[in-house]
Specification:
The chain is mostly helical. 66% of the residues lie in helices and 2% in strands. The chain is built from 14 helices and two strands, in the order αααααββααααααααα.
Length: 361
């Protein structure tokens, strides 16, 4: 919205500042943070009154969770999505189609997660939305988002898969890129959802990934930087840095209340939406495979569940003491804070590895 002030630069030269993505990204970080920080207590109070017993805790999970986390309200993703949306609408260039694709996909996934959380709270059961229906809705939204991204982009890059570390390698998938991109988005949403199991565990890696992709978006959307780094230039994607900034700011505000002991959980409302946002940004910037590096922690968490389920069904053997992976380490005796901080460290290392792909080509 504030970007429209640039139309008045002939009379007010200082308004030219709003043309700069870096300035508006900084504004989005601050706006989203302040919104969540200031309105967070009211939202938490309202959710606690409406939810009563709060988020149901898995009975098969660590016993400590039943004692310490019982009664904590969920749907904290509403705080994050509200702060992010306000910041993006205020600081983003609303004429940019990529902004709307990412924002709307994020809100759709947030709505799916919200309904899932609602069912869990009202039924006081860890079983919410039926898994197949949930995945179908996510897939349809992701297919539409990817189709729009392809339609907005330029051939052959729009339907091609870029390979990290190789500057000239593009695999043109044709229209198969649409289901491939949808798979990335759905996978990212559910991987972050599986990671969200301990206080502060998911939100910090999400912020790290968002900050990383904010930097990547800015470079990919700038023809000079893209040419210098020999990465593929995608016109218009630089504006996604504003969304990434809003995610970082909203995440920081949420972490204030989600830090141990958490006053609120983000729930599927937040985790599905944040993962979907990261996946969509990766598809738009042609860094789908880099997301697997930067978000490697989410990949590990999702893989641990897949391996655990497959191993048990096929051989009757559990590879991990408990899945997802963070619960495995809890069962081994690690303190919750130890698991969380070490996973944060892994996220930082993976983000640096992902950034290294920009130059190692």
């Amino acid at each position: 919205m504030l970007f429209w002030l640039t139309e008045l630069t002939t009379d007010f030269a200082f308004l030219n500042l709003f043309r700069y993505i870096t300035f508006r990204t900084g504004g989005a970080v601050l706006t989203a943070f302040l919104f969540v920080f200031l309105f967070g207590p009211r939202i938490i109070k309202s959710l606690r009154l409406r939810q009563g017993k709060g988020q149901p805790i898995r009975k098969e999970g660590p016993e400590r969770h039943l004692l310490q986390k019982q009664g904590t309200p969920t749907m904290g993703g509403l705080m994050i999505l509200s702060g992010m949306t306000v910041a993006v609408l205020l600081w983003g260039n609303l004429r940019n189609p990529y902004v709307w694709v990412v924002l709307l996909l994020t809100l759709v996934y947030g709505a799916v997660g919200l309904y899932d959380d609602y069912l869990k709270v009202t039924k006081q059961s860890a079983e919410g939305f039926r898994g197949r229906i949930k995945i179908v809705i996510e897939a349809i939204a992701a297919l539409i988002a990817t189709y729009i991204i392809v339609d907005v982009g330029q051939e052959p890059l729009a339907t091609s898969l870029a390979i990290p570390f190789f500057k000239g390698v593009l695999i043109n998938l044709g229209w198969f890129f649409v289901p491939f991109g949808a798979f990335i988005i759905v996978g990212a949403g559910n991987a972050v959802n599986l990671t969200d199991g301990l206080d502060g565990l998911a939100i910090v890696p999400v912020m790290i990934a968002a900050a990383t992709f904010g930097f990547i978006s800015y470079l990919v959307g700038n023809v000079l930087f893209a040419d210098y780094l020999q990465i593929h230039f995608v016109a218009g994607t630089g504006e996604l840095a504003v969304i990434c900034g809003a995610l970082v700011g909203a995440g920081l505000g949420f972490l204030w209340f989600n830090a141990p002991p958490a006053q609120i959980f983000m729930g599927d409302t937040g985790s599905l939406a944040l993962g979907g946002a990261l996946g969509t940004i990766a598809v738009a910037t042609k860094h789908e495979l880099v997301l697997a590096i930067v978000g490697g922690l989410f990949v590990l968490e999702a893989a641990s569940v897949i391996v655990q389920v497959a191993s048990y069904k096929l051989f009757g053997v559990r590879v991990f003491r408990m899945a997802p992976l963070h619960h495995h380490f809890e069962q081994k005796g690690w303190a919750e804070s130890t698991v969380v901080i070490r996973f944060w460290i892994i996220s930082v290392a993976l983000a640096l590895a992902g950034l290294a792909t920009l130059k190692l080509r």
